[in-house]
């Protein structure tokens, strides 16, 4: 029996399994407000049979549910398409128009039969043309007496409202809003949607994103009221006067909105932003600053301000203001939401009526409080990641970020409050201003990050490995903020490119981050200068254009990741011109005799030789390396060869091949020592050329022996890499025959290691290997950059789940058998469906349960030597390819398999 799960793909992947019996399909992207003229479709085939492969499909897209139910695809009837594509299938029907509601379904043919039609689905087009928007942005382009724009960027929130009449019976209604920097939208007193900190941040001089909501259920016949609050976000920049040459700001908060109502008689009405709206800045949110916090004065609340009948006679007339210069675009990546809640594990009393709250986990978000007290009483909340030895908050690593919320009570019996436009990274909270002992039951930690699904699970027989994975999850999730920020706590929180180089690849096995990173690639493209330069931070909220290979080159690494993990070739096409232009820029300016002479960071944040050697010392030191920059340029030529072929630019592929060969030859001649190492035999300097396949074949063994000796003997089983080298360490050790050594590195508990962080209380991943002794000014306790390729190695080599072709159409399943690791249970929700690898071994037997999704195939490598007995539930379905290095290699189709290998 063949069942279907379906999804519309405005950008790329992916879909949860939804059976035919369900009447709705859970969408991972809000299907409202799409501005892609050829949206892409995907579906999962769900079957209990083995070896199911799609042979054809048919998609219907209709303008009404009735037409779709009658199988009339008046917008697009693809007809029967004899292809096996079930992801990235582009719409090819009539031209889609603004606000058009589209209804669609799909059926497929497979080698095992034909499905019925899937459940109906829908999506709605956004405002496709500039003329579709209202004529006026509204706002107040000035500060008010209680604001301060000279030092700490204290700016109160802006409140706006309007009442309108809806006289007819409503068929449906949508609201499209751009609220900069951040907004909350209300209709008739109810918040629209459950997003927070929306919209996603961009360089607002390049593009601004809008969100669209279905508000049919919010609007009633007769009089209605719409209200919005605007916060500062990245638009009205923090610390903008601190370093104006560095920090980019965009102006005062402003808004553009359209509510479109379609009545049952076919007529329409629009409620737009204009100067008929009323506004005030003298509300309860007195300031909201991402670094410093939010101050909320409940005595200044105006109940009912977002409902009908509110007296706004003392409010100001909304003013027309200049629009931002960026292009208006629909937001196709997920908004931020409250994704988890945590109850504190303890609360302890300090001196002077203060209390320390312990959440038990370094988290990102805010604290909701329930409090009682007299009117005007103030509750102060100060946040930090750790405590000093005396039990007080440790705030030195926050730099000058105040990370403080202030709540002024209105004097009710019990008041509940949480901030609206700020967040922070914290485990501990200092509470003050209470006249009584607060209870943990009155406090809730709310974890926020982009509404990105967790698509990977991973568990092993090793408790430390499991804890490292858990720490990684918390760190990665917490640093998703519409952009991949480096850290969530100090006065930085910037989208540094270098931090996410190869880390994003490992992230993709855990989170459905394809849309997130596709959006970020657009941010990087938008930040590129006319001459080709790409910054180290994008969007370029901080103006850093230092010219190096490793930070800007992240654009190529992320493009490769999204393409390989999701099968989205458009991500290559979209970014190809920018990548080629940047490589040309760097070559023309800095390449001499095929050596790239410009670097900025070297192997950033290499661990000090001992934990004591780094005590109190700043890690903010740069050691530029021409070896690293040249090796990376070579690696990028190899990626561009792949990208050129994918996009049909075969002439470019040949040019990059010639250039790469010349770079490799010059590199080897300059840096290779006949003793089998490069430069001064630093670990990273050897790993990079070997993993990038720059080393001539006859020297490969020598170089790898030096790598293994450095790790095993010199480092006593420890790593010694910074941000650059750690991106390739685990896979290099594994691919050249030492997965056991990789496992040794991954499970160390002594310095420097991931386990050392945990032994010293970490619940996320530190910025520095010596994060407990380094100068606190650069000492984040929640960074992801030092994960390197660890998660990639977990999934590809410990679990044995690896894409053999883009999107996991073909899968390689080859788990490493390592002494000390007895089992691995892992799963990954790929673009085609769920992949599972659950194995367990003993001295006499190996058991392996595998799931391969329909419409894919896998090559599996069973650990079996000659004489071992290989058994499976239905051996007739298996195709033995070969025996190789102690492995029996089979090619299998979709389905669930249970292998048993009995050792002789």
Automatic annotation (TrEMBL):
It catalyses: Hydrolysis of terminal non-reducing alpha-L-rhamnose residues in alpha-L-rhamnosides. Pfam families: Bac_rhamnosid, Bac_rhamnosid6H, Bac_rhamnosid_C, Bac_rhamnosid_N, Ig_Rha78A_N. Residues 800-873 form the Alpha-L-rhamnosidase C-terminal domain. The keyword Zinc does not apply. Residues 168-339 form the Bacterial alpha-L-rhamnosidase N-terminal domain. Residues 348-448 form the Alpha-L-rhamnosidase concanavalin-like domain. Keywords: Hydrolase. Gene3D superfamilies: 1.50.10.10, Galactose-binding domain-like (2.60.120.260), Immunoglobulins (2.60.40.10), Maltose phosphorylase, domain 3 (2.60.420.10). Residues 454-798 form the Alpha-L-rhamnosidase six-hairpin glycosidase domain. Its EC number is 3.2.1.40. One of its GO terms (biological process) is carbohydrate metabolic process. It is an enzyme of class 3 (hydrolase). This is alpha-L-rhamnosidase.
């Amino acid at each position: 029996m063949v069942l279907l799960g379906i999804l519309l793909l405005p950008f790329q992947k992916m879909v949860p399994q939804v059976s035919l019996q369900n009447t709705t399909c859970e969408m991972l992207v809000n299907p409202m407000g799409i501005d892609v003229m050829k949206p892409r479709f995907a579906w999962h085939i769900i079957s209990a049979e083995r070896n199911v492969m799609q042979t054809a499909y048919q998609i219907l897209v209709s303008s009404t549910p009735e037409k779709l139910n009658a199988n009339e695809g008046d917008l697009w009837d693809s007809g029967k398409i004899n292809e096996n594509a079930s992801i990235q299938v582009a719409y090819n029907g009539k031209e889609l128009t603004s606000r058009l509601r589209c209804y669609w379904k799909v059926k497929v043919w497979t080698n095992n039969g034909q499905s019925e039609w899937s459940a109906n689905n829908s999506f709605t087009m956004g405002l496709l043309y500039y003329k579709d928007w209202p004529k006026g942005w509204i706002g107040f382009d000035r500060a008010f007496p209680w604001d301060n724009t000279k030092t700490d960027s204290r700016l109160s929130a802006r409140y706006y409202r309007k009442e309108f009449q809806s006289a007819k019976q409503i068929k449906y209604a949508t609201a499209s809003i751009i609220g900069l920097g951040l907004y909350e939208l209300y209709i008739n007193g109810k918040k629209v949607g459950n997003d927070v900190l929306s919209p996603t941040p961009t360089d607002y001089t390049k593009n601004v994103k809008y969100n669209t909501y279905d508000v049919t259920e919010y609007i009633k016949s007769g009089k209605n009221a719409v209200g919005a609050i605007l916060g500062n976000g990245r638009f009205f920049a923090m610390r903008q006067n601190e370093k104006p040459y560095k920090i980019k700001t965009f102006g005062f908060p402003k808004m553009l909105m359209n509510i479109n109502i379609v009545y049952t008689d076919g007529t329409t009405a629009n409620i737009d932003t204009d100067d008929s709206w009323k506004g005030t800045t003298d509300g309860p949110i007195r300031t909201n600053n991402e670094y410093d916090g939010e101050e909320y004065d409940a005595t200044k609340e105006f109940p009912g301000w977002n409902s009908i009948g509110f007296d706004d006679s003392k409010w100001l007339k909304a003013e027309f203001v200049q629009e931002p210069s960026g292009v208006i675009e629909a937001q196709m990546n997920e908004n931020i939401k409250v994704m988890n809640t945590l109850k504190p594990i303890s609360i302890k009393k300090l001196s002077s009526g203060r209390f320390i709250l312990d959440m038990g986990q370094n988290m990102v978000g805010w604290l909701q409080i329930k409090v009682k007290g007299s009117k005007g009483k103030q509750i102060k909340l100060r946040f930090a990641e750790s405590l000093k030895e005396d039990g007080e908050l440790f705030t030195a690593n926050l730099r000058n970020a105040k990370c403080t919320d202030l709540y002024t009570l209105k004097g009710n019996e019990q008041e509940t409050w949480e901030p609206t436009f700020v967040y922070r990274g914290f485990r501990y909270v200092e509470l003050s201003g209470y006249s009584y002992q607060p209870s943990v039951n009155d406090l809730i930690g709310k974890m926020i990050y982009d509404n990105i699904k967790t698509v990977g699970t991973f568990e092993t027989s090793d408790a430390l490995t499991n804890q490292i994975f858990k720490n990684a999850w918390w760190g990665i999730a917490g640093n998703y903020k519409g952009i991949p920020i480096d850290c969530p706590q100090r006065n930085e929180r910037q989208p540094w490119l270098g931090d996410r180089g190869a880390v994003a690849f490992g992230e993709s096995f855990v989170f459905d981050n394809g849309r997130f990173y596709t959006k970020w690639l657009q941010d990087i493209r938008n930040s590129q200068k006319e001459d080709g330069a790409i910054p180290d931070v994008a969007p370029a909220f901080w103006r850093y254009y230092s010219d190096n290979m490793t930070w800007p080159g992240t654009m190529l690494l992320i493009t490769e990741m999204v393409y390989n993990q999701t099968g989205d070739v458009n991500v290559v096409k979209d970014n190809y011109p920018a990548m080629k232009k940047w490589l040309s820029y760097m070559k023309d300016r800095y390449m001499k005799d095929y050596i790239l002479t410009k670097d900025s960071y070297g192997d950033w944040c290499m661990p000090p030789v001992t934990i004591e050697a780094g005590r109190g010392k700043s890690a903010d030191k740069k050691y530029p390396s021409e070896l690293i920059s040249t090796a990376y340029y070579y690696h990028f030529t190899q990626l561009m060869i792949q990208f050129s072929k994918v996009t049909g630019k075969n002439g470019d592929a040949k040019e990059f091949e010639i250039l790469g060969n010349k770079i490799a030859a010059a590199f080897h001649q300059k840096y290779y020592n006949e003793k089998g190492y490069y430069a001064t035999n630093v670990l990273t300097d050897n790993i990079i050329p070997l993993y990038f396949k720059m080393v001539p074949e006859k020297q490969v063994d020598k170089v790898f022996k030096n790598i293994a000796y450095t790790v095993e003997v010199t480092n006593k089983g420890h790593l010694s890499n910074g941000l650059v080298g750690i991106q390739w360490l685990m896979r290099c050790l594994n691919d050249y025959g030492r997965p056991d050594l990789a496992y040794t590195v991954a499970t160390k508990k002594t310095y420097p290691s991931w386990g050392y962080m945990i032994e010293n209380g970490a619940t996320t991943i530190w910025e520095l290997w010596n994060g407990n002794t380094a100068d606190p000014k650069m000492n984040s306790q929640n960074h992801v950059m030092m994960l390197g390729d660890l998660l990639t190695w977990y999934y590809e080599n410990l679990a044995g789940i690896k894409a053999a072709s883009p999107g996991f159409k073909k899968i390689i399943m080859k788990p490493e058998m390592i002494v000390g690791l007895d089992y691995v249970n892992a799963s990954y929700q790929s673009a085609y469906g769920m992949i599972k690898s659950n194995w367990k071994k003993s001295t006499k037997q190996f058991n392996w349960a595998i799931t391969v999704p329909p419409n894919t195939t896998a090559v599996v490598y069973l650990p079996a030597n000659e004489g071992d007995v290989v058994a499976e539930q239905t051996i007739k379905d298996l195709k033995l390819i070969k025996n190789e290095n102690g492995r029996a290699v089979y090619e299998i189709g979709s389905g669930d398999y249970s292998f048993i290998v009995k050792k002789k």
